[in-house]
TrEMBL record:
Pfam families registered for this protein in UniProt: BTK (PF00779), C2 (PF00168), PH (PF00169), RasGAP (PF00616)
Region Disordered: start-end pairs: 696-725
Any one of the GO BP annotations: cellular response to calcium ion
Protein name: RasGAP-activating-like protein 1 isoform X4
Domain Ras-GAP: 251-461
Keywords, alphabetical: GTPase activation, Metal-binding, Repeat, Zinc, Zinc-finger
Residue stretches making up the PH domain: 516-623
Organism whose genome encodes this protein: Zalophus californianus
C2 domain span: 1-105, 116-236
GO terms of molecular function: GTPase activator activity; zinc ion binding
Record bears the keyword Zinc: yes
Length: 763
């Protein structure tokens, strides 16, 4: 039985932060750490003491993680960033409530002496002789300690306390096997800032579960696959119908993602989406409200597009998004938001009028919107076949349910509502969340992206709301938008003009083919030990591509000659201490050649977010590799010694644990059908009692797994004469499958407990 562990983290907002700048404000951002590993950094919110971030992360974790920490800092353009405060949450505190944490939490002060990290290796024995009993403690080794010197290292020693006495060791440099213990700060009263440092609103949920072998999930998987083939309108007791009724709020998005991944792995994503959309269309009487809520159907289609269509989205939007970020043009149509003084300083002579600013902005906006529309309407052949087939099914379903002439546009709006309003427009508004950019936009660029997203949203609405509402200042764009709408209708007709026979059959092995590029961009590259080169000249700028098969690079994207490393050769991907090269944001990729020799390549990223994304992508790509390293050196071998542990042998064993299990969840994660069906099973358990009460005659009887099985088998004998015959039979089958899974979990848990009781011999 395998175990999985992940954290869903949402850094929502801050309030009442202290001013750190002379202007009386701050430029806050937040760093997220799991134990001592930085896993994420939010955007900087400029000039705000009540910042809103709204950033969400899924962090895949090792099973033995201990705490989660949030550090709020004030970004300074000169010098080091100021630390405002931190929040530390233990694993136990997060796991105490299955629903997780969703609250405001006060920031506490950061005490450098309490910022303890690392582990110590001890050999502790209780000895007994003629003089009595004594305790022998042999202090052997330490690892992963925090650097305390300007060189990026430390000169550590250990002090052993017993009773009122203490004894110090010499500097710890030994390397011997024994038991490892996590270092903790000295016990002290927890300092409460009383809110003087402000507070963060956080949402944190720990997801941990035991995953059974695949064969135990097969009956539930078959039930799920069968349920999408039946009449969706009448279904009330299939697993999908139960899940739809049970799941609300934020949980609906998690469930939609798991279901889409599960059905993708079985090659049945199309039938799943058709089943869910048919149920919603049947229940909808007003076509203007179709798919406007966050129903399971809407969330499933939204997650499906993200999982299947991200490479397509990047191909369509990335060129224009990059232009917007790089050109940093000032654009504004709303008179209430125009900064006439700023536009004069940037691009005008004399005092500009609102009309001048509006005309210039209109030209710039259409200059970006034109290529966006061209890229979209010309992308029919590049849209994934699975998406086109899903849209065709949706088109047919809506057309059958709303055949009236006055509802002619509904079949178009159903598709454009997903493709434009839930895919293209959100990606334009927040490119970082769709992996189109490594950083969030600055305030000026954010405003430009908002205007572009509003325009694309209006096109997706087929102009139905133009001239209505409060944003009449968008009127100068209306001629361009109206001109684009007829082209979008033609594009949607072409998009659904696809033969269903073209779809490749069989289960999908992965969301992303091994040859597809999952990450690319410029990095600075350095080999292990360049001969007599200063550090700043040793790093060379290269353009990198990562797929599931290779990590390749060349001098530029257009360069024909590429060097590459098979992903299967990667043995570790880790951070490098800043003191190793006196450079920030450096990582190392350790590979093994055919002769078994290890080689290290050092790569420097532009910022901590880019570093985290490359670390995560490389770790996930190399996850199936055998013989991964359990330890490595976080420093570099320079001047005949390791900068981290000062050992003089290049081949010395690594002094720090590797972190291959720490990754960020994203659209390119591999399919994991057992973990996905386990989550579905847990959700169905929540509705078991409701299912009994609704479809079985005696809901107050024994609710044990054994009783479920007996009741279920009895309910299926013979044909029920009433109208509930079919749903009762479906409910009975589902309850029986859940009871079988209950028993399997209990058996495996008992085995684990028996092994633990026997100790090492039991394994």
């Amino acid at each position: 039985m395998a175990k999985s562990s992940s954290l869903n983290v949402r850094v929502v907002e801050g309030r009442a932060l202290p001013a750190k700048d002379v202007s009386g404000s701050s430029d806050p951002y937040c760093i997220v750490k799991v134990d001592d590993e930085v896993v994420a950094r939010t955007a900087t919110v400029w000039r705000s003491l009540s910042p809103f971030w709204g950033e969400e992360y899924t962090i895949h974790l090792p099973l033995d993680f201990h705490h989660l920490a949030f550090y709020v800092l004030d970004e300074d353009t000169v010098g080091h960033d100021d630390i405002i405060g931190k929040i530390s949450l233990s694993r136990e505190a997060i796991a105490a409530d299955p629903r997780g944490i969703d609250s405001w939490i006060n920031l506490s002060r950061v005490d450098p002496d309490a910022e303890v990290q690392g582990e110590i290796c001890l050999d502790v024995q209780m000895l007994e002789d003629a003089r009595g009993r004594c305790l022998r403690c042999h202090v052997l080794q330490a690892r992963d300690l925090a650097p305390r010197d300007i060189t990026g290292t430390s000169d550590p020693f250990a002090r052993v306390f017993w009773g009122s006495q203490s004894l110090e060791t010499s500097v710890l440099q030994q390397n011997a096997p024994s038991g490892w213990f996590r270092l903790l700060p000295f016990p002290r009263a927890e300092e409460d800032s009383g809110g003087t440092l402000g507070a963060l609103r956080l949402k944190v949920r720990l997801l941990e579960d035991r995953i059974l072998p695949s064969r135990y999930y097969q009956p539930l998987t078959e039930l799920l696959m069968e349920s999408v083939l039946g009449p969706a309108e009448e279904d009330a007791a299939s697993p999908l119908a139960v899940l739809e009724e049970l799941t609300l709020g934020d949980c609906r998005q998690d469930l939609a993602t798991k279901l889409v991944k599960l059905f993708l792995g079985q090659g049945q994503a199309g039938p799943l989406l058709d089943y869910l959309t048919r149920r919603e269309v049947t229940r909808t009487t007003d076509p203007n409200t179709l798919f406007r809520s966050n129903s399971l159907a809407s969330k499933a289609m939204e997650q499906f597009m993200k999982l299947v269509g991200m490479p397509y989205l990047h191909e369509v939007l990335k060129p224009v998004i990059n232009r917007v970020f790089e050109e940093k043009k000032y654009m504004e149509l709303d008179p209430c938001k125009m900064d006439l003084g700023r536009t004069r300083r940037i691009s005008f002579k004399g005092a500009p009028s609102e009309e001048h600013v509006r005309d210039a902005s209109l030209g710039l906006l259409t200059g970006y919107l034109g290529p966006i529309v061209e890229a979209i309407v010309g992308s029919v052949g590049r849209c994934p076949l699975a998406m086109r087939l899903a849209f065709k099914q949706l088109h047919q379903c809506v057309e059958e349910h709303f055949p009236q002439a006055e509802h002619e546009d509904v079949k178009y709006l159903a598709i454009s509502g997903f493709l434009f309003l839930r895919f293209f427009a959100p990606a334009i508004l927040t490119p970082k969340l769709f992996d189109l950019r490594d950083q969030h936009a600055d305030p000026q660029t954010s405003r430009s992206l908002l205007l572009l997203a509003k325009a694309v949203q209006s096109i997706g609405n087929l102009g139905q709301q133009l001239g209505q509402g409060k944003e009449l200042w968008m009127a100068p764009l209306h001629p361009f938008l109206l001109q684009s709408i007829s082209r979008v209708r033609h594009f949607l007709d072409q998009l659904v003009d696809v033969d269903e026979e073209e779809e490749a059959g069989g289960p999908a092995r992965a969301l992303v083919a091994p040859s597809v590029i999952v990450r690319e961009g410029y990095l600075l590259k350095r080999k292990e030990e360049p001969a007599s080169l200063a550090t700043r000249f040793a790093f060379k700028k290269r353009y990198f591509w990562l797929s599931g098969e290779t990590l390749s690079y060349s001098k530029s994207p257009e360069w024909q000659m590429r060097s590459s490393v098979p992903v299967s050769h990667i043995r570790a991907v880790e951070r490098v201490d800043e003191g190793a090269f006196q450079l920030p944001h450096v990582m190392q990729v350790v590979t093994q050649d055919a002769a078994g020799a290890l080689h290290t390549t050092y790569l420097q990223c532009k910022n901590v977010n880019e570093l985290n994304q490359w670390l995560s992508a490389l770790r996930k790509a190399s996850a199936p590799n055998p013989d991964k390293l359990a330890a490595c050196h976080p420093g570099a071998f320079r001047s005949s010694r390791w900068t981290c542990c000062l050992q003089a042998e290049r081949s010395a064993a690594g002094c720090s644990r590797t972190h291959s299990a720490v990754t960020l969840g994203d659209w390119s994660d591999p399919l994991d059908p057992d973990a996905e069906i386990q989550m579905v099973y847990r959700r169905l358990l929540l509705g078991r009692d409701q299912l009994r009460m609704k479809f079985q005659e005696d809901p107050n009887t024994d609710s044990s797994p054994e009783a479920d099985a007996e009741k279920s088998s009895g309910a299926t004998e013979g044909a029920c004469p009433d109208a509930l015959a079919r749903p009762r039979e479906a409910a009975a089958r589902l309850l029986e499958v859940l009871a079988d899974l209950d028993r399997a979990h209990e058996e495996f848990q008992q085995r684990e407990q028996q092994k633990a009781a026997l100790g090492p011999l039991g394994h």
